[in-house]
From TrEMBL:
Gene name, Swiss-Prot/TrEMBL: CAC1M_4
Localization per record: Membrane
Gene Ontology CC terms: voltage-gated calcium channel complex
Membrane topology: Multi-pass membrane protein
TM region(s), chain numbering: 20-39, 59-82, 103-131, 228-255
Molecular functions per Gene Ontology: high voltage-gated calcium channel activity
SUPFAM superfamilies: Voltage-gated potassium channels
Gene Ontology biological process terms from the UniProt entry: calcium ion import across plasma membrane
Record's keyword annotation contains Calcium: yes
UniProt keyword annotation of Membrane present: yes
PANTHER family, sorted: VOLTAGE-DEPENDENT CALCIUM CHANNEL TYPE A SUBUNIT ALPHA-1, VOLTAGE-DEPENDENT CALCIUM CHANNEL TYPE D SUBUNIT ALPHA-1
Residue ranges of domain Ion transport in the record: 9-262
Record-given protein name: Muscle calcium channel subunit alpha-1
InterPro entries associated with the record: Ion_trans_dom, VDCC_alpha-1_subunit, Volt_channel_dom_sf
Amino acid sequence: MLAAEDPLHVNSDRNKILNYFDYFFTTVFTVEITLKAVAYGLILHKGSFCRSYFNLLDVLVVSVSLISFAFGNETFSVVKILRVLRVLRPLRAINRAKGLKQVIQCIFVAVKTIGNILLVTFLLNFMFAVIGVQLLKGKFYRCNDESKMTEDECRGQYVVYQGSETGMKITIEDRIWENNEFNFDDVAKAMLSLCTVSTFEGWPKLLYVAIDSHAENVGPIYNHNPLVAIYFIVYIIIIAFFMVNIFVGFVIVTFQSEGEQEFKNCELDKNQ
């Protein structure tokens, strides 16, 4: 219903009708939770209502709706956030669909057991970041006037010619000494730059900047250091291919092992 609301006209007829539906379903969900808490008990004994994480999720979703209704049309930012949190309502379906519940349980089991893989991946990223800092620190600076190679030379203004000989446009721009958006000046920035490489999103641009890098605080020279490409290729092979595939494979194995638990007390095997 939140998706069907008119965000520009708060007091429109459509929003008023949707609010009535909101009141109705919130009331039904509140009664349902109350009855389940009475039937199963609240928290003291095994199998009680609040000992299930999925039941607590239901309580959270319904509580957000009740609190937002209690404040009415108040304009507090906290209330607005609570109203937005009503998008959590579809998550209540997890508690009613056995397949969805099993998927969520498998995800939690996988998260608990992949700590070593995440730690190794982080250490490898840290190692490559340290190497990158030693190789490329301070080498991604450049002047927007490509004829100037140092910060001392990159001062004043320069003339820019644009267009063809018949329609030449001449502009005067200030020289600016700037660093690349992604660089290896320290370990933190290096790890951020390597994250862009691991996602394969625009990493060739970073590779070309590294290949053209010359020296610290000196502008680039075209194709000056092509061997630095080995650094990026090795990183992609180890992190983007090897470690990511290990992570995905481990999650798949976890799903399979959790699925086999369904057949543990059954006469049929998993293939049947």
